[in-house]
């Protein structure tokens, strides 16, 4: 479990195909590897990956073909920056919201509108995820916990403060770039519970 508060802007070192529709990804991140061990979880652009090895300030993780297909990780190349966050500890503050690191879909940057103290960014929203996104609700974009400013049938927008623009990948994302999206898991649980009640005739 994560909080969507990016700890470090890391970098893809290399991606090695391992056969069987999978890859081994090496990521440089001195902060997140400072206490990392085999088996630990680290979110890379919002995707929960399991550490298999740590070498200095670089960790490696196995990435299954399913993950490469369903997220934007497959498009990353050596040198690309990535948002990194270690799994939350039970005694840590919940600065963002509950984030699983399980990407629900891939969106796309539609537009950017700079302002004096912030920037409004609009993203394409896959149709299957639209019902989970509400104005003033939470959404995770490339591992960053953000508050939805506006939402349409197939898009949503957020306001990014200077800190987010400077310390995460969203500062350099251009129109057309893909982003990993994870909707608020609470919305999915509510939908399931209400669906079961309706199906059972409970009003």
TrEMBL record:
Keyword Flavoprotein tagged: no
InterPro entries, alphabetized: ATP_synth_asu-like_sf, Lumazine-bd, Lumazine-bd_dom, Riboflavin_synthase-like_b-brl
Keyword Transferase applies: yes
Lumazine-binding domain mapped to chain residues: 1-97, 98-194
Chain's role: Catalyzes the dismutation of two molecules of 6,7-dimethyl-8-ribityllumazine, resulting in the formation of riboflavin and 5-amino-6-(D-ribitylamino)uracil.
Residues forming coiled coils: none
SUPFAM superfamilies per the UniProt record, alphabetical: Riboflavin synthase domain-like
Source domain of life: Bacteria
Protein name: Riboflavin synthase
Pathway field: Cofactor biosynthesis; riboflavin biosynthesis; riboflavin from 2-hydroxy-3-oxobutyl phosphate and 5-amino-6-(D-ribitylamino)uracil: step 2/2
GO biological process assignments: riboflavin biosynthetic process
Catalytic function, reaction form: 2 6,7-dimethyl-8-(1-D-ribityl)lumazine + H(+) = 5-amino-6-(D-ribitylamino)uracil + riboflavin
EC number of the protein: 2.5.1.9
